[in-house]
Design brief:
The chain is built from 19 helices and 26 strands. The protein is of the alpha/beta class. It has an 8-stranded antiparallel beta sheet, covered by helices on one side. Strands 5-6-7-8-12-13 form a 6-stranded antiparallel beta sheet, with helices on one face. A 5-stranded parallel beta sheet has the order 18-17-19-20-21, sandwiched between helices. The longest helix is centred in the C-terminal third of the chain and has 22 residues. It starts with a strand and ends in an 18-residue tail after the last helix. The protein binds 2-deoxy-2-amino glucitol-6-phosphate.
């Protein structure tokens, strides 16, 4: 989604801002722009396309100044062109502003301002904010921003400057993340710490309704009612290397290869191998409630929803607690029934997905205990949850989620053991699961060693334009995830199905042109899935089967096989998803797609 960086204090401002924008590229965008304040006033450059296009523009027509704001835009209102790109001006061209989020009542605000004589230049919802601030401006920018925002319905993270107040930038947040960076003689406002990590590790996270004023001397945090607010300073623990490619051609490939490490990072320090138990500090305060809970509702979107589905199979089988997994976007708009015996788990890599955030707020409003399973420390979902579990996968930059998924699944397993060891899981079973989990990272390495073979298979399938992915039990969510990976980065149509559902409809699609990727590892559903492979072959479909290393039966029937080590059924998703991630990656590369920034997609979806 859109990205913001603003700074004051050091030069070359434009260069530092563009560097920051580059770190936000992964979020997905289609235009970019920058404004700086210098001795002559406000100067703006903006264009459609990539940051490299903005750099070219700045090379031909340079600007610099004592402070500035910059933005990557992911179009919602109005097409992605230079005119609609941020920053946006007021009529008097003294207010200049960048905005993430959506001004829902922009049409009524626009017509009110037009009645007052304002003239609009763009199709965006954002432009009304610049005009509204101009309307209220009486010499103090933060006060005009406060008055303007009181009229706004919707979400915003903004950074704004006024020509008459050189060296000052005002930021405000409601529903769109904003952090304040405290550097060495320089201060930042950004939508994401990645943008400022090369300059500072000290940050403040703004909450909804809060604002910040930065200038060369420091910062001031306040709220929309002009009351001062005390904020804690957080130290970021991520390294710069973690948000760089480290020799890989794409972040996605780097992140796929990190998984033996990141899975271990999720369980490190949390396992008690002697007793098969798990320690989860973020749940300590809720132990009693968790032990008596009678129902769990899991909320998430996309890949996080798939991780929730794996969790449903795990928790129901081992902890014997009924689980429902809900699309966060649907949960929010029906009338969900929750009681004090229900625990809600919100799963989100970014911790900023607005559908999940709003669903979780709805659950809190209805009195449920809400726990967050998130990756980004200090994210909104992490902060608004009652408690939770960080997955510790490190920064995930590729838009297609890979390492966060396996860490989310690992976190679901930890939670299953945590809940289950006090209920249905025996000492022996607990110890066996914990030991097997500790061996998973080296099995992941073994799968990653097959990358050359997977690349060759990708060549076989790269031209196909439709795929079916089939799985049963623990590997039904993996079929969904494999299909999602392929479609989001290669733009190839792919559907995931529970294998037995195929005969209720999708089987009509099968002919010699339809590749079917089938999860056939030897779990409790193995014999059934063999039958499904035969059904596909009988209709001349092409089968790419994922099998265990010693499998012979399926490989005799399938056109191609990918082999993975055997493990416990409930751990098999951690292994089986990896060849599917690599297959999607290599098909996308062969098709010439932009793997890390697929078209139309954003890393964290902060609009509904
Ligand atoms: C994953 O590959 C997707 N890009 C997407 O489905 C993602 O999982 C979804 O938007 C949820 O994001 P979150 O985990 O940050 O909440």
């Amino acid at each position: 989604m859109c990205g913001i960086i603003a700074m004051v204090g050091r030069k070359p401002t434009a260069e530092i801002l563009v560097e920051g924008l580059k770190r936000l590229e992964y979020r997905g965008y289609d235009s970019a722009g920058i404004a700086v304040r210098n001795g002559e006033g406000l100067a703006v450059r903006k264009c459609a396309g990539k940051i490299r296009d903005l750099e070219a523009l700045l090379l031909g027509d340079p600007i610099d100044g004592e402070c500035g704001i910059a933005h990557t835009r992911w179009a919602t209102h109005g097409s992605p062109n230079a005119e609609n790109a941020h920053p946006h001006f007021s009529c008097d061209r003294k207010v200049v502003l960048v905005h993430n989020g959506i001004v829902e009542n922009y049409l009524s605000l626009r017509s009110m301002l037009e009645d007052e004589g304002h003239h609009f230049e763009t199709e965006t919802d954002t432009e009304v904010l610049a005009h509204l601030i101009e309307y209220y401006y009486e010499g103090k920018l933060e006060e005009a921003v406060q008055e303007a925002l009181k009229l706004v319905q919707g979400t915003y993270g903004i950074a704004v400057m006024h020509e008459d107040e050189p060296g000052k930038i005002v930021g405000a947040r409601n529903g769109s993340p904003l952090v304040v960076g405290l550097g060495d003689g320089e201060f930042f406002i950004a939508s994401d710490v990645a943008a400022i990590l090369s300059r500072t590790r000290q940050v403040i996270y703004l909450d909804d309704g809060e604002m910040v004023v930065i200038d060369a001397d420091g910062y001031r945090t306040l709220d929309i009612d002009n009351q001062s607010v005390d904020k804690r300073i957080h130290e970021i623990t991520w390294n710069l290397d973690q948000i760089e490619k480290g020799g890989y051609p794409h972040f996605m490939l780097k992140e796929i290869h990190e998984q033996s490490q990141t899975i271990a990072d999720t369980f490190r320090g949390r396992l008690l191998p002697e007793t098969g138990e798990v320690k989860l500090g973020g749940l300590a305060d809720f132990e009693k409630q968790l032990m008596r809970c009678k129902r769990i509702v899991i909320l998430g979107c996309g890949t996080s929803w798939h991780a929730g589905l794996v969790g449903e199979y795990m928790i129901e089988e081992y902890a014997h607690i009924p689980v429902e997994v809900e699309y966060a976007s649907e949960f929010r708009y029906r009338q969900p029934l929750l009681d004090e015996d229900t625990v809600v788990l919100a799963i989100s890599q970014s911790g900023e997905t607005v559908d999940t955030l709003q669903a979780m707020r709805e659950a809190k409003k209805r009195g449920a205990l809400v726990l967050g399973i998130t990756n980004v420390v200090g994210s909104t979902i992490a902060r608004e949850s009652d408690g939770g579990v960080y997955i510790h996968a490190g920064p995930e930059i590729g838009v297609a989620s890979t390492k966060a998924f396996t860490s989310q699944v690992t976190a679901m397993l930890l939670l299953t053991l945590y809940l289950g060891r006090h209920r249905e899981i025996s000492l022996d079973t607990g110890v066996r699961i914990v030991r097997e989990l500790m061996g998973i990272p080296s099995l992941v390495e073994r799968i990653l060693e097959q990358e050359d073979q997977i690349r060759e298979l990708a060549q076989v399938y790269a031209e196909d334009s439709n795929f079916l992915y089939l799985g049963r039990g623990y590997n039904f969510p993996i079929a969904l995830e494999g299909a999602l990976k392929l479609k989001e980065i290669s733009y190839v149509h792919a559907e995931g199905y529970p294998a037995a559902e195929m005969k209720h409809g999708p089987i009509a699609l099968i002919d010699k042109n339809m590749p079917v990727v089938v999860m056939c590892t030897q779990d409790g559903t193995y014999e059934k899935i063999k039958g499904n492979v035969q059904e596909v072959k009988a209709r001349h479909g092409r089968v790419l089967a994922l099998v265990n290393e010693d499998d012979e039966d399926i490989c005799e029937m399938a056109d191609h096989c990918l082999r993975v080590p055997a493990t416990l059924d409930l751990l098999s998703p951690l292994l089986n998803v990896i060849p599917l991630q690599l297959l999607a990656y290599h098909i996308a590369v062969l098709r010439g797609c932009e793997v890390d920034q697929p078209r139309n997609l954003a890393k964290s979806v902060t609009v509904e």
